Amino acid sequence: MSVRDSEQSRVNAKQATAMGPLAIVCGGGAFPAAVADAVRRRGREVILFALRGFADAASIQQYPHQWIYLGAVGRVIRLMKQKGCRDVMFVGAVYRPRLRDIRLDWTTIRWMPAYIRVARHGDDQLLSNIAMLFGNMGMRVRGIQEVAPELLIPVGALGRHRPSAAEEAEIMLGRRALQALGPLDVGQAAVVVGGRVVAVEAAEGTAAMLARVAEIKRSGRVIAAARAGVLVKAPKPGQDRRIDLPAIGVDTVKQAAAAGLAGIAVEAGGTIAADANALVRAADEAGLFLLGFEPDAETIR
Known about the structure:
CATH topology of the largest domain: Cytidine Deaminase, domain 2
Order of helices and strands: HEHEHEHEHHEHEHEEHEEHEEHE
Number of strands: 13
Helix content: 40-55%
Low-confidence stretches: 5-12
Number of helices: 11
CATH superfamily of the largest domain: LpxI C-terminal catalytic domain
Strand content: 15-25%
CATH architecture of the largest domain: 3-Layer(aba) Sandwich
Radius of gyration: 20 Å
Distance between the termini: 47 Å
Structural class: alpha/beta
């Protein structure tokens, strides 16, 4: 490391210390730990606030953490501030709970009328309002692009395999489908096979959607080659990109391969990968292409 690089590292470390620890509200899956590791590599401490019933206990034990209940917003924010946190981010899978499963405190109870109103309009507005609630109580809600941009998929083909011209056309069709369905608060993924949109992600999630595609192909309702079609993932148009970005991992590659797809295309800079190297290795081994496409709205009107 050069003297200049060493000095820059010291400056970055000072800045990270001055910002205080980052609070990470953790849902399920591997992504909370991946984000925590990436933030630590940048010299900033983290404190994980793990949602009971969602977060994976084994994956968060190595970090400073607190277990919290969904719905105890006031208590959670007080805890964050007591520990010196002023920035917060939300990472991991959280499915919409039933009201009886939420532990309410007075802050949340006062917010419930607004919750009920926005809940009718879908997850996007609900998540944005949760972020607004934290902001109104003095917390700065951060997105992964601010604290760990290296976890976002870059532009271009990753790995050995490349999409054909026909597959590029299928990618564009999938993008158009997601662009059209986004305002309806449908999912963040679609599957295109043989020039047709054969599946769109809904409440079941990407894994269940891909299992459905595999069954559709096995049943003969879609006639295609043994390895054909593409999974397309992208954020919904207009969504708050600080929260709920789409994610892919090794399991996604395995599920796409099991569904007989030829590849995966995701919006670059708008899709998270916990371990990009493992993801590329898995795609290469499965014979799938993996592509990050430019988020150019002009091309998908």
